[in-house]
Amino acid sequence: MPLVPDSRDFYWTTEGVDPTLAVKSWQEILSKEIIEMAVSSPLGDSFEAAWLRYGIGPIDLNFLQAKPQQVHHVPLSRSTSGDESYELLFVRAGSVELSQGRSTALVPDGSFVLLDNAKPYSLEMNHSMTRCYTAHLENSWLRKWIPYPKELIASPLSASAGWGAPLAALLETIFTIGLKDSPLPRVVLADQLGSLITLLASPHQDLQRQHHSHELIKKLRQTLNENFHESSLNPDFVASKHGISKRYLHLLFAHESTTFSQVLLDIRLNKSISLLQDRRYDGHPISDIAWDCGFVDPSHFARKFKQRFESSPLEYRMKCRTQ
User: Fold this and answer.
1) Which terminus of the chain, N or C, has less C-beta within 10 A?
2) CA distances from 205 to 41, 86, 211 (A)
3) What is the structure's pLDDT at 211?
4) What are the tens digits of pLDDT across the range 132-152?
5) What's the predicted TM-score (pTM) here?
C-alpha cells in the first residue's frame, strides 16, 4: 500500500517574488506557517530565502535557508493547538547568534539548540547563506520524550559526537532524498526522531538537573538558617516557600545523604553553641537558649545537645568560662 503524503508538505521560495517584497513575504510566511516572526535583513532587495516543510506525525519538520537576516519572535497568541511549543533548531551551515531570556549563545554549524516559543527570542544570521533545519514540537508530545524541556533552552548541543550525529544524519537524509519513497509511515519516523532527541538531551539534562538540585539545596539550607528559631518550622512551610512538593524536598535532602530534620537539628545545635559561648548570654537560663534556637522542650534540647557534644548545655557553658 503506497504511503500517503502529508497535507502539510510545502515548499516556498522568494524566487519569483517582487524583490522589494522578499523580506516582507518571508516574514509573513514564517509567521503564518511556523511561529510569529519579525524579520529584517541588511540586504534589502537582494534578500533570498527558501523553505521546505514535511509533516511527520505530530512534528512539522522545516528545512530553511536564507541570506543574512535578523529574526525576532515575540509571542502574540497561543499556538493553534492551544499548547506550548518548542523549536529544535539544527544549524546545518553558517552560524546563529541566539538570545532568549537571560541566555545568549553562538550556535555554530553542526549544533542543535532548543527554543521556547512561549518566550521571546532573537536569531541573527550573518553568513552569506545560512541553512537551518527545525522541528516544531508541541509541549505535550515533547514531554513524552524529554520530561524537563525548559532545562535545555538556549544551550547548544553538538551534532558531531554522541547521539547528535545520528539525529543530524536522519534530518540530512530526509532533506536530501525526501519522504516519497520512505518504507516507514511518517508517524514511525516521528518516534525515531523522538528517541534520538531523548538520547541527545539525556546527558545535558542529567547535568542540568544536578546543578538545579545543588542550587535548590543551597536555598533550602539558607531558609533553615534564616528561620531555625521558629519552633513551628516544618517541611511544608519550606517546600511551599520554594514552590516544590514536600516529597521532592525530602528527596533532595536524601540525595545529600541527610534529612530535613537532621539539617535543622544541626543548625539549631550549632547556634546554641554560639550562644553558650557568648558571655552576653550568661544571665540567660538554658531554657531561654533552647527557645531562642527553636527548641520548645528544654529537656529535649539538653538530650540532643549531650548526644552531640558529650556534655550538657550547662556543663558546656561552665567549661567555656574556665578556659
Assistant:
1) N
2) 35, 16, 10
3) 61
4) 999 999 999 998 888 778 888
5) 0.64
Architecture of domain 10-205: Sandwich (2.60)
Q: What are phi and psi of 178, to 5 degrees?
A: 75, -170
Average pLDDT score over the chain: 90
> Could you tell me the fold of the domain covering 228-323?
Arc Repressor Mutant, subunit A (1.10.10)
Range 94-108 average pLDDT? 94
Write down the domain spans for the chain. 10-205, 228-323
